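Z., the sequence and structure:
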Amino acid sequence: MKASCLILAGTFTCHAVADGGYAKNCQNMMLVDLDNSHVGLKASCKAGNKDQCSILNLWQCYGTDNNGALKPQERGAAPRCRSCKLNGTVLQCDCRDRSQGRYHISSVDTNNLIVNDNGVLKCFGNKAITPDDCASKRSSGYGSNLSLVTLGYALSFCGLALIWV
């Protein structure tokens, strides 16, 4: 009984924290390709009575530490990450550590850092761009495909499940 109460309390606590950022009044969040090594977060956010589309360069908000873990970092250089996807507000990428050069999955909840500033996404004072074609910009594979690492784990799990049965 105590365990179920703790789980329920933790769920409500996590939900309350998640509602503190941009997700509370933004929708249609997706990752878009800005150029060869930069990933953008595109969203349509409330600006008074209307919606405003904007695209924030996520590498202006996040970087990686020596172990390849994604961390909030102003103007963070994160070209060591690849195969990024967005699950709700959680950014997940395969990031390389500095010591051995190995890739591993790292994730961070973007809702804890990024805010809606009158319809424009912002972090650390870095404002998103609001191009005329923002609403029509499509995801370039980010967020819509499983990474090869994730796919490998999924296939391994399925294989083990078949052997187990």
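The two ends are 32 Å apart (CA to CA). DSSP finds two helices and eleven strands in the chain.

Let me know what you think.
H.
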